[in-house]
Amino acid sequence: MTGAVLSGGNHLPVSLPPRLVTLFGLTRCLCLGVYVFGAAYLVSPLFGWHLDVATMAATFGALPIVAKVSIKSIVAFPFAFHSINGLRHLTWDAGAGIAVPSARGVTDAV
Looking at residue 26, what is its pLDDT? Predict the structure, then answer.
């Protein structure tokens, strides 16, 4: 299975490994979920839905510990993934690790 090929205008095309394409898609889906929930939260008073903070906290508190850890892990993953990638790009901006073999190694590590 091959990864996605990105074209940057006049630059050479960049091929991404399939697992990174999958992770980027996953984080986009999770971000979409945040936007959908935010919109539902804004219109909830109009429809009589109970999405206020107290109700959500009580509902979350009533969940079993396995569900709490799972939900927190799913929500925290995109933030951790993008933070680590941000550190990688800051390192590249500083001029370290920009050789092809070391860049591939860091990409595989992330």
Answer: 76
Query: Cα 12 to chain center, whole Å?
Result: 26
8 near 14, Cβ under 8 Å? Answer: yes
pLDDT of 59 over the 70 cut: yes
Q: What is the pTM of this model?
A: 0.55
Q: Write out the two tokens for 17.
A: 């490994």
Sequence-distant (6+) residues with CB within 8 A of 2 are 15, 18
Residue 98 lies inside a defined structural domain of this protein:
yes
Q: Which domain holds residue 77?
A: 16-109
At residue 94, φ and ψ (nearest 5 deg) are: -80, -5
Question: What residues does 15 pair with on adjacent strands?
Answer: 5
Number of domains the chain is built from = 1
Closest to 103 (Cα-Cα) out of 27, 7, 14, 9: 14
- Here the CATH number for the domain that contains residue 93 is 1.20.1300
